[in-house]
Structure prediction request, 414 residues.
Amino acid sequence: MGPTYSHFYDEPLNLVRGEGVWLFDEQGNRYLDCYNNVVSVGHCNPNVVKALSTQAALLNTHTRYIHENVVRLAEKLSSKFPEKLDTCIFVCTGTEANDLALQMARVVTGNYGAIVTDAAYHGNSVAIGAMDPDRKVEVGTEWLETFEPPNTYRGPHGDGEDLAEFYANEAGKAIDRLSAKDIDLAAAMLDLSFDSNGILIPPEGYLEKVTDKVRAAGGIVIVDEVQAGYCRMGDYMWGFERYNVDPDIVTLGKPMGAGHPVAAVVTTREIASKFADIDSYFNTFGGNPVSAAVAEAVLDEIDAKKLLESATEVGAHLAAGLEKIKQRFRFVGNVQGSGLFWGIDLVKDPSTKEPMSRQELRHITTLLKNEGVLMGSTGRYGNCLKIRPPLVFSKENADQALAAIEKTFEKMES
Ligand SMILES: Cc1ncc(COP(=O)(O)O)c(C=O)c1O
Prediction:
């Protein structure tokens, strides 16, 4: 295996079995999974496994032949979106979905430039990987400008009024910087959970204002729902529904297949048709009958188990517990997020907001693992403790997670 692989823990976990919110290592130790959003409907969900194995035993081909599974999936999926977002194209990964979305934006607008928030992660292809300024591979990024994300705790605009306006202006300035290079805007790509910025909830009206600026410049809005989608943030199925504006293209991934590689671009018929006039697109594995059966089973589970309602309710319970933890420990700078997606911004000193180091976060996640709870870290400085459990997380699970955080933070204090 290549040397680019890295593990979360100095003593890597060898996981051998999963069930619901639980993971088991080779010694039979049980861990509460507070990290893995991909298995949205629970590890080894029996209905998803059944859909997968039944179809795998029957037929697996590709979209050069017709198959009812992929049509049924497209219908079910698009029924979860505003009416105008009625067209689906299936791929295998979030990177592929974003890469295709960018290609579509360029074809449809005739422009080349793109803007993303600073430190955003949208995937790892040549084009999409270039959007992550931390990547060291030189790929040529004159077509890209990054802008300040709406971080109301750490950002330059404080936490006063007009924050939506201030932060939307940051997007406007990025568009201006492209113009100064004679590059017109094709798209803004936005992860509305701002995962790699530590999980942020933008001020009210933010997406509307950014969208106005993007469209006025001739670009389109791509919302990357790989993290924020599939009920993750509570209250809504998709992150963009929190705002009063519909994006032009939505990309999906990770939780869509509960561990099986399936992803999608959802857009308007008009955009998809304009793209098809110029280019054809074939993806060998995208939308195959097995992947389609799996993705449909995930949607069915979300509905049958009322996982949106559950993510909202359990999320509120978790939020209340995290707030108490914030009050108790000095080094908790901020608690940010919603639903079942939270970041705890940990600081060396609350007055300076100097971030805790990545090593300290690694120590904290290791202590949590020793308590039988798996969490991660994220954020511009790697100092945010990341909580993002499967959607089948209960209030009881949340209480266990909160108790483990408290116990770990007590150790950090002493
Ligand atoms: C917001 C977001 N978009 C896209 C991707 C890329 O998805 P994939 O790893 O399936 O290519 C990720 C992966 O972490 C992500 O977090």
Observations:
- The chain has a mean pLDDT of 96.
- Residues 93-95, 98, 121-123, 191, 195, 224, 226-227, 253-254 surround pyridoxal-5'-phosphate (CB under 6 Å).
- The radius of gyration is 21 Å.
